[in-house]
Structure formats: C-alpha cells, structure tokens
C-alpha cells in the first residue's frame, strides 16, 4: 500500500512540476529580481496593462539569483536581471550573464555615469546615502564631508548599520576609488571608534535611534527617511520631525549615490520584450512612480522628484561611473573586516 | 517446464553464473529495504555533498583574509550561541514537558498544546518584533524615560540586539522541539519503571532525575540536536542583531567578497561542528539501549498540584508561552489590524493556499521517506546504512541559501544534459524540466527537513522493543506488513510529531523557497520576509500572523494525538 501510494504521489509531483513549468510562457518577459516584489510589482502590472506583454517574476537575494542564472546557463528562462545596486550588475556582467543592448531611448534618458559604458546594464532609479542629523543636537554647520565624520568630535555619536550591508560596502568602495585603500581604512577605523553602538538593525533603525537620542547622526539611504516622513503612523512622523537631511561633500566629490538597475540576460529568449520593459521603466510615467511611491530619485534629470524630496533641495552627487563600485566591493569588505567594522 | 530448462542451461554459462552469484550475495547483504535506503540517501545527500565538494576548490587569498581577521570571532560567537540556545531550550523544554505529563494543575490540559505554539513563530519575526518593543527607541524604553525623566545612560536596560538577546529570542521559539520530543518520550515510558523507583525509596524528583530523564535521553537529545542545527543555520536573527557568526560570515563571503567557494568552505566547517556534536553524543551513549521490556501500560498516575505549587506550575508554563507566543503574537495582531486594509486582499488568500499546499505535500513526502528509512535501518542495521542515513540527514544544519545552491547546481546540470541529448537525437529542446518547478522546491524541503522527520521517527522506533516485531516475524509477517500493522500504530505519536514539525518548518522556510521557487510563486514566509527586510515590519505582520495561525490547527491535532497515542490510554 505504501509503495503504491508513493508511486502515485511522486507521479503527481512530477506532473505537477511539468505543468507549472509549462505555465511560464515563452511569450512575455521573465524577470529575476533582487528588488522586493512590493517595490516593483505595480509598475510591472502597468506594463502588462499597456502592452499586453505578460511579466513573470521571481525575487530573491542578488547573488543567489546570479548563481541560479549561471547554473541554468543558456537554458535559463530569465530575460532580465534587476538589482538594487550597481555592484551586482557589474558582477553579473563579469560573470558573463548579461548581454549588451542598444536602445536610443535608454541612452538618451539615462546619464552616462548611471549605466554601463557598453550597454550591459542601465540604472533605473537613484538613491543617495547621506547624513541625517538630530535637529536639536547638531548644527548643519558642524557637518561637512564623509571624511570629517572620522574626527574626534563625533566620538560616540555616529549610527550606521553593519558592514555586511551592500549600501555601506558601496559607500566604502567609492571612497577607495577617491582616496585609496590606506586612507579609507584609516577612515573606517575612525568611524568604528566614533560609533554610538555596535552596528545593528536596518537604516530605519538608525533613524529611530537618532531620534531617541542614542546617537546624533546617522548615515542612511534617503528613501528610508522619506518613508518615515510620509508614514501614516503619527509616531513615525514624530520621529522624522526631529531629524533633518545634510548633503555632505558639496565642495568636493558630492553625495554618494547608487542605483537600482537592470540588464538583459545573455540567455534572454524574449530580448525585444525585455528592451521594451526597460524602456517602459524609464518612461516619464514609471520614473514619476519611483519618485512618488518609493521616494527614490528618478534617473532622468527631466522628471521631478517627490514633494518630500523637493523640500530637501538639490545636491551635487558623486559622478564616478558606478561600475567602479562592483570592482572595489571585495576590497571594501576586507577593509572593513580589518577595521573591525562588524 | 520449458522455462526451467532454459534457465538451467543458461545458468551453466560462466557469465550468468557470475550474475547469479552476485545476485545471491546481494540478496544476502542487501534486501529491498537496504537498497531503498542507499538510494534515498544517495539522492538526498547530493546537495550537502555538492557543498562539501567546494572544500577541494583551492582556497584563495580570501580564505587567508578570513583566518587573519574574522574567523576566530565567527567560531567563538557560534559556539556561544549554540551553548546558550541549547541550554535555554533544554531547560524550558524538559521542565515544561515533565510538568505537563506528570502533574495536574489549572490550565495544564491547555498548556499541553499551547506550549508548542512558539514553534510556529519564525525566529527572525520574533527578533524584529522584540526589537520593535524593547529597543532604546521603542515604546517600553521611551515610556520609562518619559515617566522618570531619564536620559541616555541614566539607567540599565538589557540591549535586545545582543548575544544575550539572540539566545533568549531563539530559545523561546526553538524549545518546542525539546518539549515535544521529551513529552512523547515521558508519555511512552512505562509506569513500572517509575513505580519500581518509588518502592526503592525515590521521591518524585529523584525518579525524574535518575529514571525518567536518562530513559528519555534519545528523544531529548534528538530535540536538542534539532535546536542546535536550527541555531547554526539561522541567518535572519543574527544578521538583524549584528552578531558575527558562521552564517553571517558565509553570506558576507559570498555576497560581499563574491567568493562562493570560500563561503561553501565556511559552511563545510560548520558541518564539522555538527558531526562532532553528534559523534560525541553517540559515543557517550555507548551500548545502552532505551526501549523497555514491559508491555504493561496504564494511564500515568498523575499528581494533582494544589495551592502555591499549582500556581508555580501554572507560572512556569505560562512564562515561555507568553514570551514566545502571546507577547509577540499580540504585537503582530495589532500591526496586522492596522495594515489589514492594505495587505488583506485576494492575493493574500493565494499566499495562504500556496503555503498550505507546499507545506502539506512536503511534510507527507518527508514523513514517508523518513519512516521507510528508519524502518529499513531497523530491519537491517548495517553500519554502511547508518552512515548513509547520517549523511542524508545533515541538510538541516546547512543554511537554506547554501543548500539551495547544492540543489540547483546538480539539477540544472541534469536538465542541461537531458536537453542536449534530446536536441541531438530528436532535435527537441526540453529546456529546464526540473529546476524552476515545484518539484525542485519539494526536493529542497526534503533535503533540509528529512533530519527532523527521520530523527523523530527513529527516536520513536528506539522506544519499542524489537522483540515485538520479531514475534510478528515468527508468525510469518513480512517486513512491509510488520511496519504497517505493528510499528506504525505503536509509534503513531512520533509519526504525527514528525509530520507537524516538518509542516510548520516548511511554512516558515525562507531562503531555499526564495531562490528555488518558480515564477510568480509566493508563500507567506516570502511575503513576510520581503516586507520585514524592507523595514516595513507592520506590513509584514499579517503574513507572519497567518503562518502562526496556520500552525495552530495542526499543533492542536498533534497534541491530542500524542496524548491518546500512549499505549494504555483510555481517554479521560
């Protein structure tokens, strides 16, 4: 009885598996996304609505998706790889998982430092990693550059998350490019010394901690702060009211930025649809959505930012090509390991 | 007649004679059970072996960097965490199990199943929730500061995101493994043993310490080893708390340094931890066996607690329940209500259905295979088979994402081979048949959770004396019928425990699901994690609460089944 039951059960599994596999249509466009579903789904639905092209989505951790793409090789069903930092796109390119695409629309609208020079990947939205300070304890005049955060006056006052976090790795990678490994490592050591507490939690946690007085300044991505400001929860807004944005390094390199972006996979079977989707994602409509709903900066200079972001004013951003972040990432992690940045 | 002649003739040929000899040898050493065992073990151990295989990739400078800088800390912290969570869940689990089995006090009948509930709470969810409540910026500390006019540094408050916090949080959701297994062991113990100990002048406490506890050792250790494995493969909690342990190191090395081989080597090192632990326990057990020979069962004579003792019993059971379940549950409930309008929709129902389907089929599949394996070992206990079972059930200790790599790398290779063969011969491209389907997902669950099922069932078998099965054999029952007619009814409690444990674990499972699932396939755990890791804790509460709620029903059924599964149980 057991045996018969098992055979039936396994057969059902197999058939079910095949069936589900068949459900992924050759038509349409298939995405492997390191971006959370909630932050992209509505845009994709809108794309389907407009073009009739169906979009299939799997989300996951970027490097696990890269590994899956690599293992699947030319049979991979994925057409587009979407990530939330340039470093991973660069890594995918180096692993030979992407193919170059040329599109006049993409090239016209995306500034050249926010896309791969040879068209392997394109930035879709911009996030800035900046300084947020407690209004009652810090004067904006006291702040100047990222480098200045290493000075002794910030001892025990800085809040920043773990060095396992990709945004910190990218920040350090960009500093390595500008200052070299040795100077950056000294900086990282000083930051560790100046931390208000050992790194823990996410960016929002750092903001809450500043508001509660556990530290005086935090280094976070802008959209987390914007989200608190726009929150439906009055407590969140009360926290955000105690904080303000400072744009560092305006006379030097500028604010460190990163992108969420995408590339067409080498194995793409729906290449045309994939390019259409990328073009849709940088259309005026989508870019506005990034701004209004996610509180990110549009990648297109001609699309207005959200009301909250507008109040923070314009800033000068670091103009290095973001491919550098991928190149320096491993060095950044090792450097932070040596500096004792958890 | 004719056929026989043909056979006789052919048997004379040297090559077929060889075959016959070989067949006879095989029949002697390997019956169908053993072949099944080897086959399953072979397939299930592919992913861990793929991971271990990375050991042979030459270690680059990344590895020496790790040794120079962070490896020491990873090892120390992992050991600390294991020791802490192990001790915590051992104490909570065994004490509450003993109380609920041997004593009667107000609420005891409820506690029997309530105490299992924290298990349905994913560790990272309780970590997020507790942080939300108890961190410096959280409501509790803010309230304290505002009421007493304190500032930062004026008072002491246990930092929740610390090693201590991680130990507490993880113990609170992992102790049910120990509780469940030791409870079914206590229930299965013959009263005679305890009565003998009483006639020899032992009190209740002495009877517990020197009779019941040692007898329940296989079950308790099984529960504890599950706790340990879950502890070292956890990523969500330690990452959020900023504690550098092996798993954080594995992902840092893979994601940050882009070096998968080195991170797999770290994972392999982790496996050595587990092997050593298991070996120590086996060694210390020696030749002791834990079944009992008496076949006389009656309901356990329970002791009614009164007055202060009753209050004490009640409180002891209430503490882990409220900290591990009620408190975070209420917080999740509040958040879920706040966000219901946005988060409760048609799609949410599909999440629930998906989750129940995968958890249901994975737990049944795992149970069937685990039972057949454990029984195969009982029928024929060869060292080779023991070893095979050990290797096949190591998956639980490997972080889910790493196991996922071990799953899809060989599967996609198989798919590619099939595809190129088909293309060459028939000019048809079959594409990826297995990877990217529900099938591969179920296989990953099997690899990861076979440990739980197998250990639980095996511990169940360990408690019934082989003479029962032997008697059935002399009466002419074959192994298969013996399993169904003798063993299965006797260890029904263990089987159900295994089923529910895997069911709940699959519902909570995140990393492997995330990376292996087909397009457009979401589960509750995926949804809860995506929102929580996007720092939208309140939005994730609905999905998290649904996981917990879906876990309650099987937990209640299980608890009733365990109680009534005791031989000699006559209902109450």
Features of this protein?
heterodimer, A: 342 residues, alpha/beta, 14 helices, 10 strands, B: 572 residues, mainly alpha, 27 helices, globular
Explain the overall architecture:
The complex is a heterodimer of chains A (342) and B (572). Chain A has 342 residues and is of the alpha/beta class. Chain A has helices at residues 2-23, 41-51, 62-72, 86-94, 104-109, 166-179, 181-194, 203-212, 222-229, 234-241, 271-281, 284-294, 307-311, 323-339, and strands at 29-33, 55-59, 80-83, 98-99, 122-134, 158-159, 217-221, 243-246, 256-265, 297-298. In chain A, strands 1, 2, 3, 4, 5, 6, 7, 8, 9 and 10 form a ten-stranded mixed β-sheet that branches. Chain A is globular. Mean pLDDT of chain A is 89; it is low at 21-25. Chain B is an all-alpha fold. Chain B has helices at 2-12, 14-29, 32-44, 46-53, 61-69, 71-102, 108-114, 123-134, 139-148, 163-188, 191-199, 204-215, 217-233, 236-241, 246-256, 260-285, 307-343, 346-379, 383-392, 400-426, 438-462, 466-474, 479-490, 492-508, 511-516, 524-533, 537-565, and strands at 103-104, 303-304. Chain B has a two-stranded parallel sheet. In chain B, helix 21 runs antiparallel to helix 24. In chain B, 51% of the residues are buried. The chains are: A alpha/beta (342), B mainly alpha (572). At the A-B interface, helix 1, strand 2, helix 3, helix 8 and helix 14 of A face helix 5, helix 14, helix 15, helix 18 and helix 20 of B.
Write the layout of secondary structure elements.
The complex is a heterodimer of chains A (342) and B (572).
Chain A: H1 2-23, E1 29-33, H2 41-51, E2 55-59, H3 62-72, E3 80-83, H4 86-94, E4 98-99, H5 104-109, E5 122-134, E6 158-159, H6 166-179, H7 181-194, H8 203-212, E7 217-221, H9 222-229, H10 234-241, E8 243-246, E9 256-265, H11 271-281, H12 284-294, E10 297-298, H13 307-311, H14 323-339
Parallel strand pairs in A: 1-2, 1-3, 6-7
Antiparallel strand pairs in A: 3-9, 4-9, 5-7, 5-8, 5-9, 5-10
Chain B: H1 2-12, H2 14-29, H3 32-44, H4 46-53, H5 61-69, H6 71-102, E1 103-104, H7 108-114, H8 123-134, H9 139-148, H10 163-188, H11 191-199, H12 204-215, H13 217-233, H14 236-241, H15 246-256, H16 260-285, E2 303-304, H17 307-343, H18 346-379, H19 383-392, H20 400-426, H21 438-462, H22 466-474, H23 479-490, H24 492-508, H25 511-516, H26 524-533, H27 537-565
Parallel strand pairs in B: 1-2
Helix pairs in contact in B: 3-18, 3-19, 4-20, 6-7, 6-10, 6-13, 8-10, 10-13, 10-24, 11-12, 13-16, 13-21, 15-16, 17-27, 18-21, 18-24, 20-21, 21-24, 22-23, 24-27, 26-27
């Amino acid at each position: 009885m057991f045996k018969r039951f098992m055979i039936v059960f396994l057969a059902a599994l197999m058939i079910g598996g095949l069936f589900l596999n068949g459900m992924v249509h050759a038509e349409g466009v298939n995405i492997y996304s390191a971006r959370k579903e909630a932050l992209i789904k509505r845009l994709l639905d809108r794309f389907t609505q407009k073009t009739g092209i169906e979009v299939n989505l799997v989300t996951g951790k970027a490097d696990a998706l890269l590994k899956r793409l690599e293992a699947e090789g030319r049979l991979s069903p994925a057409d587009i790889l979407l990530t939330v930092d340039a470093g991973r796109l660069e890594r995918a390119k180096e692993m030979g998982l992407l193919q170059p695409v040329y599109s006049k629309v993409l090239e016209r609208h995306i500034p050249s430092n926010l896309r791969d020079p040879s068209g392997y990947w394109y930035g879709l939205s911009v996030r800035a990693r900046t300084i947020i300070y407690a209004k009652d304890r810090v004067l904006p005049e006291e702040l100047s550059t990222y480098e200045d955060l290493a000075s002794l006056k910030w001892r025990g006052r800085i809040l920043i998350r773990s060095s396992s976090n990709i945004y910190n790795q990218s920040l350090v990678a960009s500093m390595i490019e500008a200052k070299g490994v040795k100077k950056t490592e000294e900086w990282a050591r000083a930051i560790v010394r100046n931390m208000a507490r050992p790194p823990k939690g996410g960016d929002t946690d750092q903001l809450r901690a500043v508001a509660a007085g556990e530290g005086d300044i935090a280094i976070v991505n802008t959209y987390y702060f914007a989200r608190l400001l726009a929150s439906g929860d009055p407590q969140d807004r009360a926290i955000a009211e105690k904080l303000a944005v400072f744009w560092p390094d305006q006379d030097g390199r500028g604010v460190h930025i990163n992108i969420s972006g995408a590339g067409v996979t080498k194995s793409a079977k729906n290449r045309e649809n994939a390019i259409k989707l990328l073009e849709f994602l940088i259309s005026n409509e989508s870019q506005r959505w990034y701004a209004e709903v996610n509180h990110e900066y549009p990648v297109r200079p001609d699309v207005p930012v959200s009301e909250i972001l507008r109040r923070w004013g314009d800033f000068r951003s670091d103009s290095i090509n973001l491919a550098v972040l991928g190149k320096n990432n491993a060095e950044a992690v090792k450097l932070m390991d040596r500096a004792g940045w958890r | 007649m004719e056929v026989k002649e043909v056979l006789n003739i052919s048997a004379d040929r040297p090559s077929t004679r060889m075959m016959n000899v070989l067949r006879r040898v095989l029949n002697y050493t390997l019956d169908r059970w053993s072949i099944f065992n080897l086959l399953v073990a072979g397939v299930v151990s592919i992913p861990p072996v793929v991971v271990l295989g990375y050991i042979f990739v030459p270690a680059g400078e990344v590895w020496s960097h790790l040794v120079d800088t962070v490896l020491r800390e990873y090892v120390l912290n992992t050991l600390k965490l294991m020791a802490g969570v192990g001790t915590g869940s051992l104490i909570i689990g065994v004490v509450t199990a003993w109380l609920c089995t041997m004593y009667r006090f107000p609420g005891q009948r409820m506690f029997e199943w309530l105490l299992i509930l924290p298990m349905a709470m994913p560790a990272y969810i309780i970590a997020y929730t507790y942080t939300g409540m108890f961190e410096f910026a959280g409501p509790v500390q803010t309230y304290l500061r505002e009421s007493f006019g304190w500032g930062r540094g004026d008072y002491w408050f246990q930092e929740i995101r610390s090693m201590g916090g991680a130990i507490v949080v993880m113990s609170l959701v992992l102790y049910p493994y120990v509780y469940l297994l030791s409870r079914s062991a206590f229930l299965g113990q013959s009263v005679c043993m305890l009565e003998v100990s009483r006639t020899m002048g032992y009190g209740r406490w002495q009877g517990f310490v020197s009779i019941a506890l040692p007898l329940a050792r296989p079950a308790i250790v099984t529960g504890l080893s599950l706790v340990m494995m879950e502890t070292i493969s956890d990523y969500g909690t330690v990452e959020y708390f900023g504690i550098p342990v092996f798993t954080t190191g594995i992902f840092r090395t893979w994601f940050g340094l882009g070096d998968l081989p080195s991170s797999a080597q770290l994972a392999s090192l982790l496996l050595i931890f587990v092997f050593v632990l298991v070996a120590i326990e086996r060694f210390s057990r020696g030749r002791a066996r834990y079944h009992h020979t008496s076949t006389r069962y009656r309901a356990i004579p329970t002791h009614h607690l009164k007055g202060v003792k009753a209050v004490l019993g009640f409180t002891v059971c209430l503490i882990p329940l409220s900290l591990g379940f009620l408190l975070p549950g209420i917080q999740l409930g509040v958040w879920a209500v706040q966000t219901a309008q946005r988060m409760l929709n048609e799609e949410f129902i599909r999440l629930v259905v998906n989750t129940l389907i995968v958890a249901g089929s994975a737990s049944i599949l795992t149970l069937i295979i685990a039972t057949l394996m454990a029984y195969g070992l009982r029928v024929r206990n060869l060292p080779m088979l023991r070893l095979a079972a050990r290797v096949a059930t190591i998956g639980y200790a490997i972080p889910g994402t790493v196991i996922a790599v071990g799953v899809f790398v060989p599967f996609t290779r198989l798919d590619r081979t099939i595809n190129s063969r088909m293309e060459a011969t028939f000019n048809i491209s079959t594409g990826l048949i297995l990877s990217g389907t529900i099938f591969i997902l179920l296989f990953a669950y099997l690899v990861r959770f076979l440990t739980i099922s197998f250990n639980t069932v095996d511990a169940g078998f360990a408690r019934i004396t082989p003479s029962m099965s032997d008697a059935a054999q002399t009466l002419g029952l074959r192994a298969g019928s013996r399993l169904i007619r003798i063993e299965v009814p006797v260890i029904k409690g263990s089987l159900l425990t295994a089923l529910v444990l895997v069911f709940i674990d699959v519902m909570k499972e995140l990393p492997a699901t995330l990376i292996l699932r087909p397009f457009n396939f979401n589960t509750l755990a995926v949804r809860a994690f995506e929102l929580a890791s996007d720092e939208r804790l309140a939005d994730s509460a609905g999905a998290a609460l649904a996981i917990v709620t879906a876990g309650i029903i099987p937990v209640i059924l299980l608890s009733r089944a365990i109680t009534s599964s005791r031989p000699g149980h006559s209902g109450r």
